[in-house]
Amino acid sequence: MRKHSDRLSELPESLIHHVLSFLPMIDVVSTTILSKRWNNLWTTVPCLNFSYNFDSEKVNRAHSHSVRNFVNRVLMFWRGTKILKFEIAIHNLYDLSFAGDFDLWVRFAVEYKVEDLSIDLSYLGVSNWEDSEIEDVYWAPQCLNSCSSIRKLSLKGCNLQINGSPTWNQLKSLIVDGFGFGGGLTNQILSGSPRLEVFELSFVENFADLDIQSTNLKKLKINKYFNEFGYNSSRPLLRICCPNLEILEISGLLYDKYFLTNVVSSLTDAILGFYEPLYDNDDDDDGGGIVLLGEKIWQILPTIQHVDHLALSSTWCVKGFLALLKKYLLSPFPNVKFLKLEVCNIEVSDMTNLLGIFPNVMMLVIDDYGGSPEKLLEFEIELSNSFLLRLKTIHITSPLSDPSIFGVIELLLKHATMLEKLVIRKWGMGSRKFPVKAAKKLLSMPRSSPTAKVIIKSKRSSS
């Protein structure tokens, strides 16, 4: 009889290391029970992943001690020569007593020429930094600034301390979710990262101008928010000069002025996700804030006019666009093939007017739609001949709680003559089952496209 062979252990060590790179270290270390050959394989893996997600209501000192002990013991017995990826994600647990340990772990990664470093100390369920004080935040040690081997760096729930410019000559991607992030620090980072292509920055409002200038950046994400320190009526400026930028995302609080130069020719994707405007006049309703938001979008409009992919990822951005449509005769967005809208409590007629400035859209995604009922015949006569002429795919996620969404779907099916697929996902209470009455209504709607398919799913269904 042929003796059964251990094919897994016969694999080359480099291939085993690659497989283990997808596992957290607590599982990697557990592979020692597989066979004698696996006893020490974990001590040379080039990818170290320490990921923990504790329940914020049940976490205690025992969890803290367990994490410290495990990470320190793994690093003590590790015998590799280089670290490709070093990841620490400890959610809902970090406090200042951890700072010394984190400093040692970061120095360890830097010493072994780490290429991809990720630290995530987020408190899940807490909206960014809304309950944080600057004294409570972990500050990465300055030895990180001289890590010339780093190619990807992600810091979430912690902050950078930089004196002078870092020497990140190999850095291609930087993600920072920091407490306070001024324009001066941004300039230092960009000057010390000549190859940086991806820069994602989320930070608490510090009422300072932000200036982004780079000839290499291809993706830029800026998300500015505020915490319990409150609102300041003085809004700073945002300047962006990136001639090779391809993807731009701006979200969160508004700036007073937007100066976007040398961006138009290269930009293909734009995402806008502004928060609800904070209007200075407390006695006014949100109409003044929406007008203000429209004015800010007007400043950005020339930069995004010719993108291929556009996402208005907050209902306030959609309202800002609608405010502009009421005030100006907006030029169409001729190149937009993919359009994503997050809408709530918007009239069907407003949705129609908005879609009218995207004559060549081929894929439309609508999230979280809600609104009040309205008859299509009140505005249908105003539709142009090119309305939704090239639309082929639609994805709608909705609670289906308002009749207006059925009006929108009816409108889309009636005028999208090239439509191939409409996918409707229901979310909210009872999402496991799609209402039979709603399904029958949707499936019975007339379609101008003979090839259009209507696919109905719950949100938990796989695509």
Number of helices: 10
Report the biggest beta sheet as strand number plus sense, adding barrel if it closes.
15 strands, parallel
Q: Round the Cα radius of gyration to an integer and report it.
A: 26 Å
Distance between the termini: 47 Å
Structural class: alpha/beta
**Total strand count, please?**
20
Beta-strand percentage range: 15-25%
- Helix and strand pattern: HHEHEHEEEEEHEEEEEEEHEHEHEEHEHE
Chain-averaged pLDDT? 82
The low-confidence runs, each spanning 5 or more residues with pLDDT under 50, are 125-130, 372-381
Strand order of the largest sheet: 1-2-3-5-7-8-10-12-14-15-16-17-18-19-20
Q: What percent of the residues sit in helical stretches (DSSP H or I)?
A: 10-25%
Shape: globular
Characterise this structure.
- It is a single chain.
- The chain is α/β, with parallel strands linked by helices.
- It has 10 helices and 20 strands.
- The strands form 3 sheets. A 15-stranded parallel beta sheet has the order 1-2-3-5-7-8-10-12-14-15-16-17-18-19-20. Strands 9-11-13 form a 3-stranded parallel beta sheet. Strands 4-6 form a two-stranded parallel ribbon.
- Helix 4 (99-111) links the parallel strand 2 (85-91) and strand 3 (116-120).
- The chain is globular.
Which helices and strands, and how do they pair?
Blueprint: H1 13-20, H2 25-30, E1 47-53, H3 61-77, E2 85-91, H4 99-111, E3 116-120, E4 138-139, E5 152-156, E6 158-159, E7 173-180, H5 183-191, E8 198-204, E9 210-213, E10 219-225, E11 237-241, E12 247-252, E13 257-261, E14 269-274, H6 286-304, E15 309-312, H7 315-327, E16 338-342, H8 348-355, E17 363-367, E18 393-398, H9 404-415, E19 421-426, H10 436-443, E20 453-458
Helix pairs in contact: 6-7
